[in-house]
Amino acid sequence: MNAQASDQAKARVNRILNSDAFRQAAATLAAEHDRTVEDIITLTEIPAPPFKEAERAAKWFAMAQAHGLTDMTIDAEGNVTGLRRGAGNGKLICVAAHLDTVFPEGTDVTVRRDGTKLLAPGIGDDTRSLAVLLAWLRALDAAAIQTRADILFVADVGEEGAGDLRGMRYLFTQGRYKDRITAFLTIDSPEMEQIVTGGVGSKRYRVTFHGPGGHSFGAFGVVNPMFAMADAIARLGRIKVPTTPKTTFSASVTGGGTSINAIPNAVWTEFDLRSESAAYLDNLEQDFFALLAEATAAENAARSVVNGKITYTVTPIGNRPAGQTDQTQDVVQSARAAIEAHGYRVHYDYSSTDANIPMSLGIPAIRIGSGGRGGRAHSLDEWIDVEPRESIRGMTAGLAAVLAVADMI
Amino acid sequence: MNAQASDQAKARVNRILNSDAFRQAAATLAAEHDRTVEDIITLTEIPAPPFKEAERAAKWFAMAQAHGLTDMTIDAEGNVTGLRRGAGNGKLICVAAHLDTVFPEGTDVTVRRDGTKLLAPGIGDDTRSLAVLLAWLRALDAAAIQTRADILFVADVGEEGAGDLRGMRYLFTQGRYKDRITAFLTIDSPEMEQIVTGGVGSKRYRVTFHGPGGHSFGAFGVVNPMFAMADAIARLGRIKVPTTPKTTFSASVTGGGTSINAIPNAVWTEFDLRSESAAYLDNLEQDFFALLAEATAAENAARSVVNGKITYTVTPIGNRPAGQTDQTQDVVQSARAAIEAHGYRVHYDYSSTDANIPMSLGIPAIRIGSGGRGGRAHSLDEWIDVEPRESIRGMTAGLAAVLAVADMI
Fold it and tell me: Which CATH number fits the domain that encloses residue A273?
């Protein structure tokens, strides 16, 4: 899975890296690094919980507009989009970072400093990337760089958790550019070594099992939804899934019942099904639906239904399509060559990112990093290190990747 | 199971009912019925949640003391006890009603009236009985009735739910009368037709299954405590239990897990095991402990334990011993004869009441009713009807039962 970058891609990247224009752009990234750090802090300190990204979106809109993006809009889903027009070869590539964090309203998002380390919820995933997009815009303008393709810059909503990729879904299925995007890069989290070329698909369900309930002693012998649910979970645990393409399941969260004295009326579990393969995910989902029916029927056969049967309701709580970008695709080769040229050892990986949506639609798409180091994403101790050398190296590699894909003139 | 009252018991009861003294006592119950209703309301409107019976206990203490009980104390567990001394045949019988209700702090316990119906949480179970004990004391004193046995009147704590019979447990295993009580009657809820001669035993456990947790996709393949728990519940559901003695199990309340993304670190379920037979309850408990170990071992064998094994902790949350009072016992025969003499059709039943504790210790014990009609116990719409004829009939029958057991002179 670790194909080398093609000679063609390496050549294209070398031409870019050796150009005066790119050198000037890289110098701008370095010279304005303090400003980029300020932008990271400014954006991080505007809370952006799932479904509540509007304030941060408005701020990013204003910042990007000041940097000369045209046709700027906030679409119906809440994504901020702006164009940097190319010379016009008809192609349009999209470069995105997500506005939302996993953190709920009320989370303290004040940035704490510890030397070159900055700590705050969401600072690496994915707020740093929002500021890096702005830094790239400034660098491109300072160097007067032109590309053949139009570049659509996007600060999107709904990447995390219950957001369920709603921003990307809108962009690729309803937005004004939906049929024009020919390649997609999401800049997500600091790590430069990992290029995500596979989108792990997931289907998530809350399943509630209902029954007549009753007194635990007096009504003993009637169906109990806890037994149906337990049987369903146990059956799920016995399913055999392949390691390649990696396919997984989890019974993750559960609850229900009201009193130790009572056969419960309702109990529920939340299930997470995932696969690197859309086909395997569909198979797993079918098996899952079948075992829900089997477990429920088994309980209705095992105990009395005189007061009513066990039934169940399935509520979808997440649906991220699986997808894959072939490693021979230009977007993969260009990004790899650009990043390796900056001294990183690249590996390909599967993950669940905004790139899942274009991948699932057959549009070449990858995730690359925003540079610097970081850790503890999704925790209150999330941090990034903005030590300039490493931070600038990553940003420069990423810009080279974008310019290789956008066909710098 | 519906043996008739013995001729001997009938004769003893007839002697009591035909005595001038008992007629006078019965007349006092009737004459003072309004005062008894007032006492019911006064006591009901003092909240007595589990473990918070102290205020109601203090009130009942004061009321009973005014009625001439001697040696009144509130013991270390919170039970109010007072003696009505007999002529001294060395016997001591105990007549109890419980102070506590199932309702939590903050529940509105204001009594509403609807004709002769009184509505309030806990009014029938078991506050009416507390007032009936006081009415009996007044009637006994008004008629100057003497008994051979001492009668220990008790307003006890901890009958409901998590109280776990703590009041009775203390009285019979640590209290000052612990080795002297030769017969026990709990006056619990209005219904006169039912005499409880069997104590349903219960053992209740919260079982928490622990595991290493991990990302639902990244750590897939490691043990998941949800699978161990589901397997345990499913195994419980397959246990065969006898209908006689009635033996039951329930998985009643469940919870755990933190995120759809995560294999949970911990999940738990609360289990309720019951039987009319102490031996069958022990057997069921042993089977239950075995299946917890089996299900946990099965999960540790089915998936990877590289990050840690599934373990489980068992927390007892309830333990009520099973027990039985033989229907030939004097306390059963006397109560039956006294109650049937007042026109009720008596049946014997199993339940879980304060009588479980003495039953489990081999002390003859029963539950009888406090009279009147009522319903919806354990609900906010709990009610009793204090229509005088029916209310007084029940109280009179109960007093006759107590006097037959205490050997009225």
Answer: 3.30.70.360
- Provide ipTM, 2 decimals: 0.85
Q: CB contacts < 8 Å between A and B, how many?
A: 152
Q: Which residue in B229, B237, B248 is closest to A216 by CB distance?
A: B248
* A255 closest CB neighbour out of B220, B255, B270: B255
Q: Is A321 on the interface with B (CB under 8 A)?
A: no
- CA–CA distance from B17 to each of A4, B248, B339 (Å)? 105, 42, 11
> Is there a single domain that holds both residue A84 and residue A159?
yes
Instruction: Tell whether B220 is within 8 A of chain A (Cβ).
Output: yes
Q: How confident is the model over A252-281, as pLDDT tens digits?
A: 999 999 888 889 999 999 999 999 999 999
Q: Of A320, A354, A385, at which residue does a domain stop?
A: A320
Strands A181-187 and A365-368, sheet pairing = parallel
B230·A227 Cβ contact <8 A: no
Kindly state whether A104 is in contact with chain B, defined as any CB-CB distance less than 8 angstroms. Answer: no
Scored b (16 or more CB within 10 A) or e, B24-55 reads ebbebbeebbeebbebbbbbbbbbbbbebbee
The CATH number given to whatever domain includes residue B88 is 3.40.630.10
Nearest CB neighbour to A254, from listed B234, B248, B256 = B256
| Whether residues B306 and B338 fall in one domain | no
Residue after which a domain boundary falls, among B268, B303, B320 = B320
How far apart are the CA of A174 and the nearest CA of chain B, in angstroms?
28
Q: Torsions phi, psi of A55, nearest 5?
A: -65, -45
- With CB atoms and an 8 Å threshold, state whether A231 touches B234: yes
Convert the pLDDT of each residue in A25-72 to its tens digit: 999 999 999 999 999 999 999 999 999 999 999 999 999 999 879 999
* A180/A39 same-domain check: yes
Q: What is the pLDDT of residues A201-212, one digit of tens each?
A: 999 999 999 999
* φ, ψ for residue B218, nearest 5 deg: -60, -40
Instruction: State the smallest CA–CA distance between residue A234 and chain B in angstroms.
Output: 6
Same domain, B54 and B160: yes
Question: Measured between CB atoms, does A299 come within 8 Å of chain B?
Answer: yes
Decide if pLDDT at B369 tops 60: yes
| Cα four-point dihedral sign B137, B139, B142, B145 | negative
Domain of residue A226 covers: 204-320
Residues A168 and A275 placed together within one structural domain of the fold: no
Number of independent structural domains in chain B: 2
Q: Two tokens at B155?
A: 């307003």
Which among A252, A257, A352 has the least Cβ separation from residue B259?
A252
Q: Do B230 and A226 touch (CB under 8 A)?
A: no
Q: Is a pLDDT exceeding 90 seen at residue B275?
A: yes
Integer Cα distance of B407 and B166 in angstroms: 29
Residue A3's pLDDT is 55
Predicted model pTM: 0.85
